[in-house]
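Notes from the 1:1 (GR / supervisor)

We went over the backlog. Supervisor wanted to see one worked example end to end before approving the batch request, so GR pasted a single chain during the call. The sequence is below; no edits were made to it. Supervisor asked that the structure be written out right there so they could see what the output format looks like.
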Amino acid sequence: MQWRRLAVWVTAVSALALALAAPVAAPAAAQSVAPGKPRSITRRIATLAPEGSLWMNQLERGAKKIEELTEGRVKTKYYSGGSQGDEKAVVRKMRLRQLDGAALTSVGLGLIYSGIRVLELPFMWNSVEELDYVRAKMWPYFQSKFAERGFELLAPGDIGWLYLFSLTPLRTRTDLSAMKIWASQHDPMARRLFRNLGMDGVPLGIPEVLPSLSSGRIDATYASPLAAVALQWHSQVRYMSSEPLGYGIGGLVIRLEMWNATTIRDREVQLKIGRKLLDDGIRRVRRDNGRALEALKKAGLAIVETPPDVRRELRAQGEKMWKAMVGKLYTQEELDMALKYRAEYRAKHGSGDRRGQ
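Structure output shown during the call:
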């Protein structure tokens, strides 16, 4: 697999899922579904997939299929290649009705309703099965919270297990505190965790991370293996710590009035196709994260076993952060809900550590 193609895949599969799963979007003046034959409306979707790529071609084919199955009532206008800016800009444009939908990471989703970040707490999950169980239990709750804010939260997506990538190996607690690590400028959870660990968290936008690694402004970052390749960060690091910091997720959103702008039949058509595609997309992300990691190791990336004392410190500070974020990102009730469902899963299936699998 060529790295350039692998680089685009993780965002493109989410965008393709959005293209098939997202409900109809249209300008504000065309929202009511008039009696008789429904009008044709065009939705405006932001995606990072580059124009002319294999994945953008898939998006166009998916949109064509939806247009065909809805007899021309649902059309799609793509804004590809990140042309609409970062997630903060995309969320702002949706609120201004300049965009109708987007595929977002949990940080972007948190800009709409921050409580959803409870699903991405560091060191919360011992397996993807735990996450899947809790997420399925809590998703309807979060859908209601997004609806209160004018958005339809459609379906979840995955980024994968998040690891620490660095220019120097992490072998001691001193190594950890000496690192200058990227901390997303829109992610208070990451900044708080790194502060708890005594690390120098440098707030940067995602486009700034690669040049900052190259210049020495930072010497560490965190990502899934597939995302590290997608963003080309792998070219500037030499080591990856074996201990995952957590599991990265995302989701698909569209403005609620856009969801209500079409017929029930057209919504059902899109959701039926979208559910199948999204399930397949999560399976592929998990599979390709494993493939990306193996390829990185073959290319010379060294995996450093996280020492037990550092592992204990990471977990202790992570759980301390869970409590610190109550009332800032999520409520105590939301944290309790996540822990309750996690305990429910572990009571049925055990709590064996299968992180990274």
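Supervisor's comment: The longest strand covers residues 151-166.
Batch request approved.
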